[in-house]
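Q: Start with the shorter request: fold the first protein.
A: Done. Sequence, then structure:
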Amino acid sequence: ALVNGFKNFVQGQIDAGAQLKNQADMLGVSTKELQQFKLAVGEVGLSGDQATTALMRFNKQLGDLETGNGKAAAKALSELGIKTQDAAGKSRPLMDVMEDVGEGMAKLKDQAQRTQVAVKLFGRAGAGLLPLFSEGSKGIKEAIEDFQELGGGMSEDFVKDAQEAKTATIRLDFALTALKSRVAQFVIPAF
C-alpha cells in the first residue's frame, strides 16, 4: 500500500507538471508566471482551470488586437489606458499587461463598469478576478512575493522533466497496447 501510494504521488506530480507545461506553452507564458497567476487567483477563490481559461481568453483578445480584430477588447483596454505594445511595436509580456489591467481596473468608477470590462477581457471568469484587481496591481505583485516565500512552486527543470516523463509513459503505454493486441491476435484462434 505504501509503495502504491508513493507511485500515485509521483504520477500525480508528473501529471501536474506536464499539464502546467502544456498550459504555459499554450498561453505563451513561463510556467513560473502561470503558477504565480494561479496562486493570485486561487487566493480570491478561482480555480486553476478558471485562471487558465481567463488567461487564455485574455491572450486571445490580445492576439485579436494584433490582427486588427478585437474591437471590444481594444475599447476595454483603451478605457483602462493600457498599451499592449512596447515602444518598438512588439507585444508586451502578458503578465506585464495583466499588472496594468489591475491598475486600470482599480481606477474605474464603479463595480458595474469593472465587471463589464473584466468580462470583455477575460470572459466569464473575469468577474471572479475583480477582487484580485481591487487594489490595482498589488494583488498580482503580492502573489509573486508569496510565490517565492512558499517555495517557488514547481521548478522549470521539474516541469521539463515531468513533461518528458509523461511523454515517455504515453509512448510506453502505446507500445504495450500494440504488444498486447499482437499476443491476443495470436491466441484468438485457440478460442
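Q: Next, the second protein, separately.
A: Sequence, then structure:
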Amino acid sequence: LEFNIVEGQKPEITYVGPALVIAGQIVNLTVQGKNFVRGAVIKFDGKDLKTEYESDQKVSGVLTVPNDGEYDVIVTNPDGKASDAYKFRVSSVSALIDGISFNRIGKDCASETIVINGRNMLSGVKVELVDATGATKIFAPVKLTYLSMTQVRAEFDFTKLAASTYKLQVTNVGTKIPAEIGFTVTETTPT
C-alpha cells in the first residue's frame, strides 16, 4: 500500500461581515472563503476570537466592534497556515441633535433634566456641557437616561456651574466629533 500525504491548503477569505458595523456593538463576525478546517481561529486586529467552525467555507466569532478604522482579519488553521489579511472597515455613526427641551437656565436650579431630541444616538452615548468661553471645564450629567436612538434625558445640577455660555455635546461611542448645541446658564432662572 502506498500513501500520499497531502498537505493542507492555505485558507482564503472572500467575505467578512456583517457589512455595516458600528463601534461598540457586539456582532457575530462571519468569515467566508475556502480551505477552513475544524479548529481554525479568526484573528481580528491580531487578537484571537472564540471561533465556531461551520464548514470548510465558513467560520464565525463574536466581536465587540472597536472604534472606527481599518482592521486585519486573518483565519489560521491548526496546522499554522494562515490566510492573507482581509481589510475590514469599521465606521462610526455620529449623533445628531434636532433640539433640546430648553437652552437657558439659571445657576440657582438644581436637578433639572434636559430632553435631547435627535437622531443616531446609540446606547452608551455620552452627554456633557462644555464651557464655550475657551475654558476646558466639562460637566457630566448627574443622571443620563437613554430612551431611544432619537431621545436622551440628561439631568444636571446647575448650581455647580458658573453663569456662562456652554455647548451641550452628544457623542456616540467610537466617535471623536460630538454633535453640539448652544446652552446658557444665567445668574438667576429666566422668567
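Q: Describe the second briefly.
A: The CA atoms of residues 117 and 139 lie 20 Å apart. The longest strand covers residues 26-34.
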